[in-house]
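Budget justification note: compute hours in this period were largely spent on complex prediction jobs such as the one shown. Inputs:
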Amino acid sequence: MRRLRVGVLISGRGSNLQALIGACAAETYPAEIVLVISNRAGAPGLRLAAAAGIRAAVVPHRDRRAFADAAQRLLLEQNVELISLAGFMRILDTDFVEMWRDRMVNIHPSLLPAFRGLHAQRRALEAGVRFAGCTVHFVRPELDTGPIIGQAVVAVHPDDDESALSARILAVEHRLYPLALRLIAEGRVRVVAERVEVMNAEVPLAAVLNPPDCTGEALASFPA
Ligand code: GAR
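Corresponding output:
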């Protein structure tokens, strides 16, 4: 089976990288990670790459153009076909983004287009939303924008703090990212007029309510 050659860009922990490494370990998974680039030398994700035997490089982010030039050289050397941003926390050079148009994806911990940028989970709590989640999308030059490939939703609980909500979202990030990458690698994803079409995907016909539709005792004890 031909496998899509993926380069992953990270800045830190690398739990999404680890989820992708785990997915790629299956023989039937149609993608492989051939390169990891971190802009930070101390990123824990570098150790995950090393443990999986994946070539890894540190490219310090002095300025956008220098980073893009150095990263591009490494990506071409490894014949990378798709870039996956996994907790990469720098804004990329516009020419670099255009060069990888529809060949670079990102994961963001919100239901875009809501809560772009930093501290998405904290701002979701502050806004009082009842659902939060994550988005995998193709990358465009403007921060956290681009055609949406997939989203995963979690309920916000009344007693959530930032760390509880972040952990719940992270757990579904780890499921959504490998799925999105697989769909791309299978050639089932295409961008038409800045929207993504996914071929042969079944969407469940379900509505989820939060707060749930409670009756009986739960409702009776609710203060008038
Ligand atoms: C993840 O929650 C990811 O969605 C987020 O950073 C975290 C990285 O965790 N990315 C962004 O906010 C990008 N705008 P990880 O290093 O453990 O994968």
